[in-house]
Description:
The protein is mostly helical.
Amino acid sequence: MVPINASIINVSLPTISVYFGVALATVQWVLISYLITLLGFVLFFSRLGDFYGQERVYMAGLVGFVATSLLCSLSPSVEALIIFRGLQGLAAAMMISVSMALVRRSFPSHILGRALGIYAVAIAAGLALGPAIGGVISGYLGWRAIFLVNVPTGILDFVFCYQILKRSTRTAVKWDIPGTLLQFLGLFLTVLTLNLVEQASYLFAAFTGVGAVVMLGLFVYQELHCQHPVLDLRLFKRKTFGAFNLSLHFNYLCMYMMFFAVPFYLQKVLHLDQATTGLVLTASPILMMVVAPISGMVSDRFGSRIPAFAGSMVSAVALLSMTQLTVNSTAGDVFIRLAVMGLGVALFQSPTNKALMSQLPTEKSGVASGIIATTRNLGMVFAVCYAGLLIHLAISPELMQASQLQGVAAANLTSGLHLVVIFGAILSVGMAVLSLAGLKNKKKALVKYEQVALKKTIQMEQKMVKTVGMALMVMVQHTK
């Protein structure tokens, strides 16, 4: 539900903009408010999960998510919708911050790659299926109905989790309240600055930009000197951990820029309805659901770097191919290119998630899960800002408020999409370079892997010998 709701509103943004009579720079806060609270508190809740119990935090988030979904569907104004989406993001942070830690606790290390491959499918496919689900529901029932799908799903999920998840022992929580607040304020001011630049409010953007730098600087100082930081920055001294986190951030930037920008192109330039737009955007999840588990199994056997590198390059090719889209392109042209991008994302994400989770000991799995969620959501937040800025370099905000574009205006929006995909292709090449981090240690890693495998094999053989021996003794006694 969390990744779906990060993108389910995308297809309806043009409709909501017209419904409330607001510009793109305003309506994009319906997305940003959800993502910024999700990002701002995910580390806080990941730490809470380590002490209070990940399953308790997850189920509390579920209850809040259902309640805020109802509020979003009843929003009387765009301002109310933005506020309720922010509260929904807070509940989502409780769920997503501990989800990967729950997966790690449930699977042994030798099949962790496959498990995380399935997890990657759920996250990536949720992000990609969100526009499709939102498009179909909004097309037939209106945009308010898209939030109501969370109510029965959330209730059913809570019932299953309450029955299945085993509650862990509670321990005392070591809070870092200053770090949490500084992180949230720094992020909020950064996003606000980018939004003000998009609206050409450069004087206010200068003030908020300075404030963002100060808050983020104080956050770094706090985390380096705090005994129990909400984000342990020292973890990034591990070269592979830092490199793969940055590459994952780039990956979500690329993917979410597409999910934000492409619906405007499909509806305003190609004049597709919301339902058709949503169906076109299913191209990526179709490939993700097939390839991500396979990619996870490959990483279990051969390591993470080769499939991650291959996925990065496939994504770059797919994004560059989108520069060939014109005002006369078809829905099929977009579908094929999004499908190739989905292939690249699926190849990349499962091995990258495994590499990140394997870098830290089990007792820090909650911290690792929170950092990965933060990296992912940070990419999603800035993707909206960057895509909005690039689109507005090509077309004015006033023209973007029209339900459909023709002639020069349609060509300008298409040019804006080209700027977005070129930026994404550059980031994808950066992902490829970062995925090679630590490659010189590959032989050492393989030796360690083989030693672990040999140890497990010997233990299994000993168990089998013991079992066979006991069976023979029973047979001998029975014969006598």
